[in-house]
User: Fold these one by one.
Assistant:
Number 1:
Amino acid sequence: MNRQNLFSQFNLAPDGWLWQSLLAFVSALLLLLAFPGVSLTYLGWIALAPLLYVVTRGISLRRGFWLGWLVGLVFTFFAENWITHSMTRYGGLPAIAAYGVAFLFASVLALFPALFGLVVTRLVNVVGWPGLTLAPVVWAATEFLRPFVTGVTWNALGISQVEHFRIAQLARFGGVYLISAELVAASALLVLLPKFKERAVGRAAALLVFGAAGVFLLADAQRDSSPATPTQFTAIGVQPNLSPDTDQSSEAAARDLENNLKLTREALARAPRQTAELVIWAESPLVLFYETEAAVRDKLNQFASETGAHLVVNTVTRDDWRYTNSVHVISPESGVNLRRYDKMRLVPFGEYVPWRPLLGWFVPPMIGDFTPGREAVVNTLRLTAKRETVITPEASKTGIERTTNFVRLGSFICYEAAYPDLVRQFVRNGATVLINVSNDAWFGNTAGAQQHLQHARMRAIENNRDLLRVTNSGISALITADGQVVDALPSFTAAAQVWQAQSRRPQTFYTQRGDWFAIGCVLVSALALGLSYLRNVFTSQTSSQGTAKSR
């Protein structure tokens, strides 16, 4: 059997279905390697090149849709394998059912890379290789649209570059979707290079280069050249390391509460001047009903008063038949009531069951059925007052307590770190410091905890805010405004850490304007797709008229 017949038999010819599917699989593999677990971040710049190369082969729209779907399916199923761990380990679901749910989940999310494959295939088929110049725009559009349909933002392509601040800072201008577009532009340019001598392709490549470079220049122009002096304060994060299936008896709850208090006191003893302005407890299986259990409320209020620190605790709030996953900020000042935040974005299968008519019969929520909140609540905290001399027109008075240092706190919960616009709302509402409390023990030893940390780091960079991240089992750390992880606690260890954080007031262009870039990409993609069909209609009419005249 000759080589040509062998290729034909196994569909391995360059235009064959199997060969093209293998190239799509390579794109998915490169994406996987660029994300936490392996973290070869530079592969993000070339990951989509194999898929885009196939698209330039003049394939059908159906083939383009299939190849994009295959990339999305393989990447999502393996990158987010922590879903099956949570469902089998803590949800009591049989492994085969958990993998079935994960496959369904990945299949739905893969529809958006599939849409990318279809649209780019259409544009390339109409205008040729130069159509790849719109690939970055189409990718950003499909990433942005995904949460509107599925509610899931996890692992946008730009998240892979959070380690590199020079690149990640683009998010301060156009959000994480701008970084995703830059990465796809690099893959498209790589595919265009072999055809560079063709005039149209050369122009297209130049457009990609100048467009990408222009974005960097615009992002640099948006830097605040004279930022206000940040306010520094001491914060303590407490990581209890409780198992998600820990004992929920009243005796165990009392023991766990005392352990949190003990860890906090030990950290206070290590803090400068044995004091802190802020103490943060993780989201954990320790269920605190602050509003409805007087004994718990009194103990926490007393502890805040004794330490002089504002205490941030994750609680469960009960209102008739409704329950909310909440954050209370307890003031050390007696009688000062701060506003409660109720979690707005709930975790699928953890806090509610999506597609309940279909899945609710055999997939129970692993924690409960919660009601989402509606507002990004920001609380103003007065930092420790300093004794000073105050000069008045009447006299000089000493020993007056006065402070001009205030922190405006925006606290969000767990999975909400993956939602750019949600976190942005806190900063738009005036937050000068961000807090993320989470229970990442659900992830086990999978890459989920690292992926979650990456999302939190990107939110800190987008909004130029220090972010204090405190989790039940790790990764707990201070994340600086440039995305650096400082003094992280060891995972799966009960411990507390003292951090020196900063409060910042200036807002980034992204904070002020939101996802303008991604919305623009949606509009440009829709316009380009519409024009491609109008061109076909115009070409068909011109051809028909020419044929009629020749007759």
Number 2:
Amino acid sequence: MKQRFQGGWFLRGALMIVLILPVLVLVVSSGPDKAGAFWNSWRVFDRYALERLVTSIQLAFWITFFALGFGLIVYGGYCGLSPKTRPFLGVLALLPLSYPPFGAASAWMIFITRLEHPGEGRILWDAHGTLSRILYSVFGGGWILGLCLWPIAFLLLTMAAGPQRSQMEAAQLGMSRWSAFRKVVWPAWRMPLITAGAVIFYLGLLQFEVPSLLQLQVYPLEIFIQFTARFSDWSAFLLCLPYLLVVVPMAWGMPRAPGGLAIHAGEPPYRWQSSGLRAAALAGTALVFALSILVPLASLMRHAGSVSLMWRVTTEHAPIVIRSLLYAITAAAGVVILGTWFTSAFNTKHHPLVPACLLALFVLPGVLIGAGWLQIRSYWPGVQPDALMAATLLAAYITHTFLLGYGAGILLWGYYGIRQREFDSLLHVGAFPYVRWLLLPALWRPGLQATVLVMLVLWGDVGMTILLYPPGGDTLAVEYYNLLHYGSESRTASIGLLLLLVPALTLMAAFALTARARS
């Protein structure tokens, strides 16, 4: 069968070269010239770097622990609802992902400060109480980031073929509750939980914004210091090498994950029959939503001051909000469109080197990708125009998150269906009519949802943006992150409120639009 919309292996190879180009340029341009300097550069792995790596691993463990626990609680509430109300909970579960983690962290810092020190008018930047000592620790960082990342575990559980009613009813006839859980429930949950745990753990290893607010010396912060303070690109690249170790197990497990995450084509997941169990699961779900959504929102609203101040800050920062949205949405749309095109000729039979390279780009700290594109931009002759700087920032966004577009392309083509593609290939139409009349009507709704989800990842980026944004073109996330360290209070809280609300409202608007179009 002749495949349409292939674009050619040459163009796909060129795209792969462009994606890995910033890392290659950074390595070639910053590497030591002499063998002695090369061996001496490995001294960057000193005792302090190893201690910070251990701290990052501990933080990632607690993040994974809390995220999986919260995700399981909400999934229990999901199984306690009727099939008609479950989609509503699924959309609400995306809201914690729309909160940039360092924005939620600052809100929890304000909340703990006001709880332990009601008369204190500003954020405490060190531990002055029992709850503050807990918050300013690896355990507290894991708690905050777990509240931000638990939707990953919940979404993978809902996508997986969970225990079905017929299986549970058959198990209850001749098994104890423990045997039913061990032989029926756990086999259905095992693969999504392992996949979610691996993803969350690796994302936890990359965190540096939240730990820096909580005064934690973590490994990514050392890499960021090598780039921005010591101006040693080669040392920073060497420090990034341990992250590549996660590529091997993840690349090995990626082809096996879809089999365990296959959506069940029959009846919906089992609903708890016990009214007491349903009530407990729904109460736990409400508590998780309150901790991850309402507490940060209420904390920033109370700290932001009067309504007139919030309105003034909103109007003053409207251009920055629009610019930040344009950056994030444009890059996210590029990621999804290019990812869908890239996977159009592959189906699911991809060469393992392709996802391994994309996974490496995603696992590496964003500051490394940004530094590579900054090096490429320095080769441009003459004065750097603002448009070129903005284009470089978008290129860095796309490079770092292209793995998400790759996954979205596989899901979108699976949604479109292999049989439908085979039928369309018999129509013998050109590429533009094929996209206009066949692909867009079928894929624009899931494509828009995928774009918004990728936009949430880019909205709160600090590492790449702080290196690459053009003069006067900083994003809301960068401005808020900088103001947090200067100690400005009410105005900073108002900006933080915008940082949390804008992506949440964008997410709700996009899903409402797609739901209305589907109906």
Number 3:
Amino acid sequence: MVQKKKFYITTPIYYATAAPHLGTLYSTVLADIAARWHRIQNIPTFFLTGTDEHGQKVAQAAQAAGKEPQPFVDQFIEPYKALWRQYSIEYSHFIRTTDSYHVKAIQHWISDLQKKGDIYKGTYEGWYCTPCETFMTEKDYEKGQQNPPCVSCERPTSLVQESCYYFKLSAYQDKLLAFYRENPDFVTPKERLAEVISFVEGGLQDLSISRTTISWGVPFPGDEQHVTYVWADALNNYITGVGYGQQGKEKEFAQWWPADVQVMGKDIVRFHAIYWPAFLMASGLPLPRKLLVHGWIKVGEHKMSKSRGNSVNPQELLNDYGADAVRYYLARQLAITQDGQFTRQDLEQKIGSDLANDLGNLLQRTTMLADKLGFTTLTVDAWNDEEKALYGQAQTVIELFDKEMERGFYHLALAQVWQLLHHANAYFHASSPWKLAGKDDVACQRVLTATCHALHTAGILLWPFMPQKMEQLCERIGRDYQPNQDLVARITQPWTGSFTIRKGDALFIKPEPTVVAEQPEVKKEESYIGIEEFVKVDMRSGTITACEFVDGSDKLLRLTVDVGECGIRNIFSGIRAFYTPEQLIGKQGIFVVNLKPRKMMGSISEGMMLTAEKEDGTITMLTPAVGAKNGSRVK
């Protein structure tokens, strides 16, 4: 692990027009996880989030509500902060673009670029999207097209003609392309950067950064007829939030900037990967090291949004399942490399299988057995080969976990921890410490102590994701969570020391399953298909990391599959008569990953495992002839 001097992470700033939704929670949880991962290594960390409170969209929403803009936006700040507190989100600073220091810093920034010749006055005529605060470029629509759809939200745009100030974005086209070439990891995942490069190579037009038809915004310095256009105002929050343009905060700004990671959804990557670097280049400031760009949360076939009526209230999820379970699900189930499906049924299944069974049950079995046998303190003088192997597995997991966290692939980092938990559960079951009690108490204590070490390792690695529950876990085994220390370095040391066992309730409770209406089956027609239909099927290699029987079914097994960049999938397969869960764990197979999610036995199946039927009627899973990287496309 490379020790860093500091870590600075940001979220997008969210429009202050409504209470936070699941999408804003998702971005913020990802940033909080990264911040906590660095704090737990005792690395100085700054985490910035906040609200975007200027612009036409906000002004129109305030007018519709019958309020002035400032009191309108004020009413949403406490709901944001309250929900973040409830979800254990520990930001360092909450910025509002109406904060006076931010307004003054933006005016300073504009004046500085005017002196350098990077901002000039002109006239704008073109199509504009109010919800996205986006001006369309000529390559975004066909010539003569009326009210073309916005490239981001697909809503119709409106024709705008007015005097404005421009930023010389076109002057930075070659510099941006050179930067992308020199920094191929600037955007994660890389596919997003390819889209950005393609856009820039198509030619950049100068960017309008002021408006005269609205008054709600940062007053443009030296021209009272104009207010600063939202992106020139909003993007700069990332530097004003750590002291830019503020007298007496020069050292603070030098300490934190540039940002190490900036988290955002894919719909705003263009602004952050093109406009934002160009602004910084013009100002002579370093560029952020990485943009972590995640996909959309989808409910059914569509992106979750209030306008579609398919949004999910994070407060209701908190009330029903608890903060840590929701945090875990968002990070584990929704791979940043693609859009992710959200269902309550799948959330409940993950709480039951991953959290209650794999993690919580192992803790409960270990501590209850130790308490029953009177082993309030567990200690070991020497390890056998089985425990040494478990320790080696733990060290491998820590190393791989760190690499995935550094990449921003949190779903794969979590998959590594579950590999350790699967090994620990298998070790505990095979060693059967309950059978050793009274016959070989030394061996019994050795098994219980090694299991506690594995649980402690998992608890530290999982703390960024589930801080409340993992602090409870550490307390139950007598390794209380202690901040301001490098706890990751501690779990990489040889397994020594004792554990003080404390009784307690189950760490996670399986929720009562949500009942959903059965969907009518659609009769399939047998027919030939053309190659154009076949190529739509996305088949990938994947490794089964967990497998379990499905209650109420004598045919199905529930598989947890690591499909690499396609994430961790919950897949049902009707092969229970031919395989046991133990036979499948660790096996690599071929899976269809773009199959429409289907409700099965109260949960959601997110793909299909390919199998073949032998002449005797037995079913066998198809596997790659040579081991392939998880997520490799089958062609």
